[in-house]
Amino acid sequence: MNKICDVAKLSEIARNIRIDIIRSLAQAGSGHLGGSLDLADIFTVLYFNEMNFDPSQLNNENRDRLILSIGHVAPVLYTTLAHAGFFPVEELATLRKMGSRLQGHPCKETGLPGIEASTGSLGQGLSLATGLALAAQHDNLSHRTYCILGDGELQEGQIWEAAMSAAHYNLNNLTAIVDRNHCQIDGYTHQVMNLDPLYKKWSSFGWKVIMCDGNDFHEILKAFYIARQSSNQPSVIIAQTTMSKGVPSIENDYTWHGKAPSPEQAREFIAEIMNVR
Amino acid sequence: MKKYIAVDEKDTRSGFGAGLFELGQTNQQVVALCADLIGSLKMDAFVKEFPDRFIQVGIAEANMIGLAAGLAIGGKIPFTGTFANFSTGRVYDQIRQAVAYSNKNVKICASHAGLTLGEDGATHQIMEDLGLMKMLPNMTVINTADYNQTRLATLEIAKYNGPVYLRFGRPVVPNFTNPNSGFEIGKAVTYEEGTDVTIIATGHMLWKALEAWDILHEKNIHAEIINLHTIKPLDEKAVLSSVLKTGCVVTAEEHLRNGGLGDSIAQLLALRNPAPVEMVAVDDKFGESGKPEELLVKYHIDTPDIVEAAIRAISRKKG
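Structure tokens for the assembled complex are given below, as produced in the milestone run.
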């Protein structure tokens, strides 16, 4: 994979990913729009700059891995994978349809290229990623493991079991990314179940903590660079994001956590994205 | 005159420990995980000899299942070890999503299953685990009878690529199965051939079934004794062909009647060849503290219960 460093190019890729997320969700008639949109910039950096992989050699044991702990934002993963060459972009139109490899939440058994694990039930992904990173450490493989976590998901106790174990085993080959959009289904995170102080929580669990604006390419690139420098700790990037980023009319509106746009809304949202340049 | 005499007495969990240690020597891909119960699971020898392939996860079973699934993605063959309760009920959704649905090569090894855990009481005496595990698609479910069989099963499941639940227990019990017989997943083992009643037993209850055979034999009742160490996949052919011959069945297990081995056998027979079924299992109750043998008597899953069930099953045969 050629690494793209030009922020203008990354920005264009993210814009196209956002448009295809909206299209596929509108075609599906259901799904999770808000988080999928706000993660588009981070996924663009991961798959077009940060991660080492070759879509034509997906069994290479030394490929970088990504575990999507918040399986409900599958649309951003699927769309990014398609744009990165893992499978044809046309397949995005099958999202959530019967018989599709693009299940509502990622399913490893469908054989969709780029899916490392089946996820959707929250709180489990960091344990998987930690196990993967442990296997790499044991085999002296140089690949890295990334895990995408939601902020609301941090209310699950298993996350902290996994956090404790990754630090205990000094897994500097592991980077977690927290999508800190402050939104969950029932409202804002500080209302539903307060998560702060997040920086202190992670650092007290032994992690190298990196704060960044998760919708700013310069900051995202820098955050991953810093994460790679960790010598003996797992790293977590707390990415401040805006739910539904890119579509101003619905930004930061938690009711868009689990909704799909109607065809008409989809046209409006795409028009908004085209105008934000 | 008793036909079955145990050569020695050992705990099944030590069979697991012995098998795991042998796997450490022979299979570099095998790694072991434990949630702060190394001694109870008899994993000491593996931990001492292969420290770099042992992962202590602390008292965090949910994370242990996830770590194991991640290690399997990374090409390892992970064996997790904790009590049966914490191996199943506590982590059901983790197993469902990360192991069964994902079809990961994780071996969930569970000790202290059933009533014979004894004095610790009901919080730890899980009798729902076979049902929980057999309900999961992709999951293979095994309940071994003694030390020898547990050791052989431990060795065998490492060769099989897929999720496995291996259930064994705490107490010292008769060790009598052939240590050289091998172990075939999903294959029933016939101990006695008979024509009057088929007794299908799993786990610690196999020995009780063989004791029952002696008593029935004295009453001139010829029981066929089948050991179903693999609850799933069920050896349907062995069950159906035996019942075709005997016309009735007794099942024996250290588990609740709901969801257990008997439940699987009754379903199979109802669909394929209806015949009287009697189930020696615990009847919708939690356990309690006590000595294992006392509890088996109180909860009606002891040798006399199998004998009585056999007589009842025979009396229910038509014609």
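Chain B is about 40% helix and 20% strand. The mean pLDDT of chain B is 97. Further analysis is deferred to the final report.
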